[in-house]
Amino acid sequence: MMQVDRRDKYQQMHALLNEKQWRQYLALEAKERGSVAQVAQEAQVSQNTIRRGIREVEAGEGYTLGQRQRAEGGGRKKESEKDPTLLSDLEGLLEPKGDPMSLLKWTCKSVAHLKGALHAMGHTIADTALRDVLLSLGYRLVANKKNLEGSSHQDRDAQFAQIKQKCDQFEACGDPIISVDCKKKELIGTFKNNGREWQAKEEETNVNVYDFLSLADGKAIPYGIYDLVHNRGFVNVGIDHDTAAFAVESIRRWWQQSGKALYPEKRNLLITADGGGSNGVRNRLWKKKLQELANEEQIAITVAHYPPATSKWNKIEHRLFSFISINWRAKPLTSLEVVLELISHTTTTEGLTVTAVKDSQTYPTGLKVTDEELAALNLFSDAFHGEWNYTIKPQAR
Description:
Number of strands: 9
Distance between the termini: 100 Å
Radius of gyration: 34 Å
Largest sheet: 9 strands, mixed
Helix content: 40-55%
Structural class: alpha/beta
Low-confidence stretches: 101-107
């Protein structure tokens, strides 16, 4: 029979038994072997623990389910009981009075800083004990949460209802509805991409320590168009600047490569977009370029902007961009071809398909649209928040 090392046996038994059962088990071992010291050494416990177990065994004080393992009042006393002023001083450090910008407010939040500050006040406490005290006071170690987008507009809900009404109207007529936005710019090269994937240990991917533009081989600017009716994505990946001209060119490419085939003979297009950025409410160039597209394709373009501080409600964010991020997680975007390949292979169980194309054109910044050019647009503003809701119709040729 295989011999089991006594130290290993004691470790295994210690994990299986509660405190009272453990010391009584060691007591029986010591009585059988005739040596308290030897059992204490092998089990790595105090001889007093074994002697107490022997007294309990001889007195017939066996363990029964639900019974206390220690005598009432046994165990270590709480730090707050040994040090009466500990809690008041600790709470004073956690919630300092006076100036809210006090240095103390920002430097005494970690366990190490709190312990040092308490030590300066004459308190002696270990790190683990301090953590237990913090937990008992209701404190938790937490990180910042990205929940604040700014104040909501008073007509926020009314604008959402307006967008839904427009979408229902266009869908009933079989007209195209697209959600547009520009995804975060990505550096091209061996840079860290957030997320984790299973890999063999010898296949670990090493990337640059620093995410500096000077170390990159360029940048990728993915502008997305999400077709709400057909659950299809189209991403125009630029390499220059995210301007209104780039945004409208992306829509033009979608219409010419996909939209016309999906919506033959349709002459109306609905665009839902954020209120800022290259497709923003106040962006004059955005409206001018949409007028050019309307003239070229002889289509009426209706735009409905999401109200301020609601960009995450844009359909493209959680129906297209989120799945692209999942698909390329933990994969360095080493070239523009890799970006296009990863975007194009993004799919979902709901049937999402994505097309990605490269845009090598340059889009200069700082272009101005004069008041006269703006007034010349064939733009019709809605009665309800015309700055958010408007239609640009083709101009007479």
